[in-house]
Amino acid sequence: MQQVVSLSFYRFGSLGSRLWAFAMMGLARGAMARTKGIGFWKLCGSGTGEGFTPKPNFGVYAILATWPDEETAKHETGRGVFARYTAKSVEDWTVYMSPTSARGDWAGVQPFIPNDSTSTGPIAALTRASVKPSMARHFWGRVPNISAVIGTDPSVLFKLGIGEKPLVHQVTFSIWPDAAAMNNFARTGPHAEAIKAVRSDGWFSEELYARFSLVSDRGTWGGVSPLHPKETI
User: Fold this and answer.
1) Of the residues 19, 60, 131, 149, which has the fewest C-beta atoms closer than 10 A?
2) Considering its fold, how many domains does the chain have in total?
3) What is the CATH number of the domain that holds 189?
4) Is residue 8 in some structural domain?
5) Rounded Cα distance, 225 and 229, in Å
6) What's the CA gap between 71 and 24, in Å, rounded?
């Protein structure tokens, strides 16, 4: 069997549904832990703008989970607590991925099990970091430049900043047409400068970098599938 990772995004419209989603950051933990076949999982809020961002977006939430195979992933993300999120949201989109590389830890564990295959198509990148409180000012001083660049990059197919806790536990997720496009962004400009600062100044107490090949998706975001934006849903 080959591990599959799901990342589900939910957009909430009314005030009542937004308050429900905010409360579920704590209340959904029991249901998530009891979900059949689930491995590592995280309930996340989101930020405004692109990539890492300090300002919360109370209209968008996300659930990341690992599964033993694609069949289990698709079955379980269509029922239980996932179905409750879908019912309350005005739009939802889930992307299913297979890890191709992973370096670092998330909450003390390595959640992703890379496979041995190679992919020449679109790829996804996930960066998760725990920012040291003493370095938060330096970190957030650099991030706006990175966010502005990734937001205007014509190559990126999808990008969103999510996280477990504002300011200190941050995740950036993006999808690129190929590895070359992603590497070009990562190795130049504000992003490359920030990476150097991370290494020299020790901004993070914990960090994780992972890449994924894309397996499939379900739902829409902004009215279309980010993986097939030219197709009519």
Assistant:
1) 19
2) 1
3) 3.30.70.100
4) yes
5) 5
6) 26
